[in-house]
Amino acid sequence: MSFRSRASARWAICAVLAVLWAASLGLPAIRVAGGPELDGLDVLVQGWRGASVGVFAWYSNPLFAGALLAAVLRWPGAAGVASGAGLVLALTSFAASSLAQSTGGAAPELAFGIGFYLWLLPQAVLCGWCWAAVWRGMLVKTT
């Protein structure tokens, strides 16, 4: 594969991941037991408040953006670290209720909608793709 076609593929992958992430903002993301259903944009706008009760999943968003930028700039190591850290933070969403309860915060049960899983998907794909690029680079250097 030529440099030009690899660059085009990298841009296309990054664009698809960004579009998937953006699409998640318009879909139902979290349903709070006995409360409202929040779409992805609601969660993006309000999610930073979760840090006050020990829930840091929202911070995966800036890490995803930084990792995506690093991937575009062909910095797979930096992209891998940022996307890996972001993915770990995103996965803490599954423990959000128990994390909030452990800090004494109000913690209703949460149900995750399609928007949540569509938000999580590009983060996981970016992480895997970046670490695969790092691994390929290491293999090339050692052979």
Keywords:
143 residues, mainly alpha, three-stranded antiparallel beta sheet, 3 strands, 66% helix, 8% strand, elongated
List the helices and strands and how they pair.
Blueprint: H1 3-24, E1 28-32, E2 37-39, H2 40-46, H3 60-72, H4 76-91, H5 96-102, E3 110-112, H6 114-142
Antiparallel strand pairs: 1-2, 1-3
Helix pairs in contact: 1-3, 1-6, 3-4, 3-6, 4-6
Contiguous uncertain segments of 5+ residues: none
Structural class by helix and strand composition:
mainly alpha
Total beta strand runs? 3
Helix-residue proportion: 55-70%
The share of residues in extended strands comes to 5-15%
Overall mean pLDDT: 90
Shape by Cα distribution: elongated
Question: How many whole angstroms does the radius of gyration measure?
Answer: 17 Å
Q: How far is it from the N-terminal to the C-terminal residue, by CA?
A: 19 Å
Structure description:
There is one protein chain. The chain has 143 residues and is mostly helical. It has one domain (3-142). The chain is 66% helix and 8% strand. The protein has six helices and three strands, in the order αββααααβα. A hairpin with a 4-residue loop joins strand 1 (28-32) and strand 2. Helix 1 runs antiparallel to helix 3 and helix 1 (3-24) packs antiparallel against helix 6. The radius of gyration is 17 Å and the shape is elongated.
Short description:
This protein is mainly α and 143 residues long. It has helices at residues 3-24, 40-46, 60-72, 76-91, 96-102, 114-142, and strands spanning 28-32, 37-39, 110-112. It contains six helices and three strands.
